[in-house]
Design brief:
38% helix; 26% strand; globular; single chain; alpha+beta; 8-stranded mixed beta sheet
Length: 252
């Protein structure tokens, strides 16, 4: 029972002398001592309908026409987790994080994901003329596929590589027996990202994180709010990657 579990967590917090406990349920809870600490948008897409029905539920101009454009341009989807795929994915990730003025996750993080999760992690790259121009990384748990990371070369967005990759993800996940795609959380102030996920025709709910004790605030390093964030956009890739390895673990 939830009440018993929360009671056990509070006992463990006291015994282990933890500052706080955080849980991330997909539904709202009401319990003494627990209160929402952060809120996000959460998107998921059911794969139960046919592919035709899923396609019809997607935004016509923003997604379906861009997927058609990608096909006309000859984009190819490569799925795997080889060292070359990880390398190409990380190159695109550095571009994307720099574009958003954020430090990148360390490369070893992705290498460890591949090593530890093996077949339960997949990277999809969209290639044009054998050059990777966009990529997504997903995880698999039972019949759920979880979208975790996406990256792209902004100079080539006109080819529709990201919608193309998500459609390949939908096709391949459904063929492999998955029943849902978890598009993950989005910050409430990320209007563009929320709108993009909305266009797939899935469901959007509010995801609340709960903490106990409720007055405890996060003391993690919020780099996204620092005034020198623009510096991240001009760092050389080698320095940016090294800084990410040193600092990323402290980012809230």
């Amino acid at each position: 029972m939830l009440a018993d579990f929360l009671y056990w967590l509070e006992i463990e917090r006291s015994r282990q002398q933890w500052r706080y406990i955080e849980i991330r349920p997909l539904s709202h809870i009401q319990a003494p001592g627990w209160a929402p600490s952060h809120s996000y948008c959460f998107h998921e897409l059911s794969l139960s309908p046919s592919l035709d029905d899923i396609s019809r539920g997607m935004h016509k101009d923003s997604l379906r026409r861009r997927i058609q454009r990608a096909d006309r341009e000859g984009l190819v989807c490569e799925t795997g987790r080889s060292e070359k795929i990880v390398k190409d994915f990380y190159r695109l990730l550095l571009m994307t994080r720099k574009r958003h003025q954020l430090l990148p996750q360390p490369r070893i993080w992705f290498q460890n994901l591949v090593r530890c999760m093996d077949a339960n992690v997949e990277i999809r790259l969209a290639r044009k003329d054998d050059v990777a121009i966009a990529g997504i990384l997903t995880l698999r748990h039972k019949t759920s596929v979880i979208y975790k990371y996406g990256c792209s070369d902004a100079r080539l967005h006109q080819f529709g590589a990201m919608p193309f990759l998500f459609w390949k993800l939908i096709e391949e996940s459904k063929a492999a027996g998955a029943t849902r795609i978890d598009f993950g959380r989005s910050d409430l102030n990320q209007g563009g990202l929320v709108a993009f996920k909305d266009k797939f025709g899935g469901t959007r709910t509010q995801l609340d994180y709960y903490r106990c004790p409720q007055e405890e605030s996060s003391k993690s390093l919020d780099l996204q709010g620092l005034r020198f964030r623009h510096v991240f956009s001009v760092l050389p890739d080698s320095i940016s990657s090294m800084a990410g390895r040193l600092i990323y673990r402290h980012i809230g």
